[in-house]
Structures are given as C-alpha cells and as structure tokens.
User: What shape does this take?
Amino acid sequence: SRNESAEDIATADAKYLLVPFYLAEVLGAVRGDAESRVGRLMESGRRLAGFLARLEDYGLVPREVAEARERAGATGNGRLDPGAAREAKVARFRAERAVKQKLEALDAARKAR
Assistant: This one.
C-alpha cells in the first residue's frame, strides 16, 4: 500500500512486486492482428507505468529516474527524454564513483592505523 516503505515488505513477498511487470511483458509479447495488438500494447504500457509508480511509492526508484518520469508526464508524450535519461545515468555513475572513492579512502585510513 502507499503508506508502506520497502522495509515493510517481507522478503518472501518481494517477488510479488514484479507481477505487474511480468503481466506487462506477457501482454506486450502476445501476437495477433494489428487492432488487438495496439490495445494490448496500451494495456502493457499502463501496467508498466503502474509498476514504476508502485516502485516509486516504495522508494525503490532512483530519484533521477523518478524526476525524469515526472518531466515526461508533464510534457504529455509519456516518453523519457533520452538526453535527460543519459544525464541521470551519468549523475548516478558519478555519485557511485564518489562513494567508492570515499570508501577506498576510509579503508586506506583504517589500514594505516
């Protein structure tokens, strides 16, 4: 539910978070005539959007991705801007690298003692 955090989810139940994702994947993979396929793809997109929204509610989506999704929703096209997605990816990489460098410095300082 919306008032829970990721820590509130039992480890055994975490797999159920993926059910909407897999339903969307199955809907997207089903073949058929063009008219019915469009309907299934639209439903698949709605399920994927719901899946991402649920992950955002639990705080499992990186902040940059959530912000990019919000910007895409604001533009109305429902697509993430590739430039913004790349910027978010680069920002995540830089943050991860900075954390690794800090950990290495702390480890070196600990070993020097």
Q: What stands out?
A: Helices lie at 19-29, 34-57, 63-75, 82-112. The mean pLDDT is 81. The chain is about 70% helix and 0% strand.
